[in-house]
Amino acid sequence: MSLIITGSPGVGKHTIAKSLAKALDYEIFDINKIALESKLYEKTNETNDVDIIKLKKILKKKISKKSIIVGHLAPYALTKSQVSKAIILRKSPYKLSQIYKKRKYSKKKIAENLASEILGIITYDTIKKFGKNKSFQIDTSSKSISKVTKTITDILNGKSKKELIDWLSVVTEKKDLQTFFSY
Ligand SMILES: Nc1ncnc2c1ncn2[C@@H]1O[C@H](COP(=O)(O)OP(=O)(O)OP(=O)(O)O)[C@@H](O)[C@H]1O
Ligand SMILES: [Mg+2]
Questions:
Q1: Is the shortest distance between the CB of 14 and ligand 1 below 6 Å?
Q2: Which residues surround ligand 2, an ion (CB under 5 A)?
Q3: Whole-angstrom distance, CA of residue 25 vs CA of residue 28
Q4: Using one digit for the tens of pLDDT, what is the confidence trace for 117-162?
Q5: Is the CB of 179 under 6 A from ligand 1?
Q6: Which bound ligand lies closest to the C-alpha atom of 71?
Q7: How far is CA 4 from CA 27, 29, 174, 175, in A?
Q8: All structural domains of the chain
Q9: Are residues 108 and 28 in contact, defined by beta-carbon separation less than 8 angstroms?
Q10: Atom number, ligand 1, closest to the C-alpha of residue 71
Q11: What H or E segment, with its residue span, contains residue 3?
């Protein structure tokens, strides 16, 4: 059974996966890369639709016990029995918005991804798919790469502490709802 690292774009999935793969001697499988290489993307302007059925079949063949599967498509491309733990990396929408601006995402893409992170869409889908017990959220906003890596190895060793992350409350308290949801 393999480990999943998921979360919104820019939360640090690939950075953490690399660090963790090195620490554990695991192999990384990048779902996006596999989908691209296997030509499973149907590109329509800004949205990318993936052939999930084909993706599921390909992943089933590729993954092993010591796999780290990276990507926001993870909850849709894997079954519960294939996964031992699902790590959901989260990042404050304030920090995430800076990363998106640096990446030169369009205003629409920024607004959509921030709204999704604030509402916790990927978190919701991950917990729904893999269950509460297997799902762990980590706020990476002010943690170093090594700290996040250590937190994950602790979780794998059963020394798990559950973080509760609620950006909607944070944004509401700061009276920034309008800012994030006015697109
Ligand atoms: N724990 C961390 N502490 C500080 N900065 C981090 C941390 N993890 C990642 N970063 C930085 O955050 C940025 C985004 O990281 P990364 O590209 O790994 O995200 P990603 O989730 O893989 O994004 P995408 O979904 O677009 O592939 C990078 O600039 C990276 O250096
Ligand atoms: Mg990445």
A1: yes
A2: 14
A3: 10
A4: 999 999 999 999 999 999 999 999 999 999 999 999 999 999 978 9
A5: no
A6: 1
A7: 12, 9, 32, 34
A8: 2-92+121-164 (3.40.50.300)
A9: no
A10: 25
A11: strand 2-6
